[in-house]
Design brief:
By secondary structure, the chain is an alpha+beta fold. The protein has helices at residues 6-16, 31-36, 41-49, 53-60, 80-85, 88-91, 111-119, 184-190, 201-208, 229-241, 247-260, and strands at 22-26, 69-73, 96-99, 103-106, 126-132, 142-150, 153-161, 172-180, 214-218, 222-225. 36% of the residues lie in helices and 23% in strands. The protein binds 1-O-phosphono-alpha-D-glucopyranose (G1P).
Length: 261
């Protein structure tokens, strides 16, 4: 994405929210992620021998302290709920945040930091960032059955994963930012497969309502869904327009495209 991998933006957002322990749930053929969050000695050696100090800093100054990143592998693609369950032994018994890196949020205050502030005001439970989507799109997202709205917080009496538009209880959809109660692990352990034949986090959070309330948080910012191709292109443009070295050139480029379209 523009000049760094998408996963790096997720890492930066978590770090900006005060997170100190990072867990990546990866899978087969994803070892590039581990390499990214590590020293690249060959490159660093070359940059240092050419006295490229600024470039050298970019390769390593952001690296978190040793021992603060862990990896676990989801051995089979059994769904988001299963991916999170794979991290249960690393997380233990405290609330934790989840970022789905393919959802990007451009905002003044990072989305997760906004959520952590809100989470401190409620008495536990599960929380996800939410936004309204066109009704035709409900079948791509987890959707809230709204109980009450109070400012930016929305409590839900139910959650449905990827409902058809005519069956969706609202158009308020979950985006890939969560703060979860560790009780979710026991529920995920027994969770049956749901939409798409996958173990769904939405279903587990829904099953907990009653024991652990669910809150949607209407975040401030603009979300880009990089899980679809057009969303990915849009995000690249939006992030490039925020980039000090690139924005002027990208604006000119867009004007040229505008003339052709
Ligand atoms: C996942 C969740 C869904 C949520 C979405 C946000 O779906 O299952 O509830 O709304 O992320 O992007 P996926 O994008 O993995 O299909």
């Amino acid at each position: 994405m523009v000049d760094k991998p998408i996963i790096h933006y997720a890492f930066e957002e978590a770090k900006a929210a005060g997170i100190e322990q990072f867990i990546f749930v990866t899978g087969r053929n994803k070892s590039a992620i581990e390499d990214h969050f590590d020293h690249s000695y060959e490159l660093q050696h070359t940059l240092s021998s050419r006295d490229k100090k600024a470039e050298l800093a970019l390769t390593r100054d952001w690296l978190p302290p040793a021992g603060s990143i862990s990896y676990t592998r989801q051995q089979e693609p059994l769904g988001l709920g299963h991916a999170i369950w794979c991290a249960r032994n690393l997380i233990g018994d405290e609330p934790f945040a989840v970022i789905l890196a393919d959802d990007m949020v451009l905002s003044k205050e990072p989305c997760l930091a906004q959520m952590i502030k809100q989470y401190a005001q409620i008495n536990g439970g599960n929380m996800a960032a939410v936004m309204d989507v066109p009704r035709a799109k409900t079948k791509s997202y987890g959707i809230l059955d709204v109980a009450r709205s109070q400012g930016k917080l929305v409590s839900a009496k139910g959650l449905v994963e990827k409902p058809e538009p005519q069956k969706a209880p609202s158009t308020l959809s979950i985006i890939g930012r969560y703060i979860l109660d560790p009780g979710i692990f026991d529920v995920l352990e027994k969770q049956k497969k749901g939409s798409g034949g996958e173990i769904q986090l939405t279903d587990a959070m829904n099953a907990m309502i009653g024991d652990a309330p669910f809150y949607g948080y209407r975040f401030e910012g603009k979300r880009y869904d990089c899980g679809n191709r057009v969303g990915y292109i849009e995000a690249n443009i939006a992030y490039a327009l925020e980039h000090p070295d690139m924005k002027a050139d990208v604006k000119t480029m867009l004007k040229q495209f505008g003339k052709k379209a």
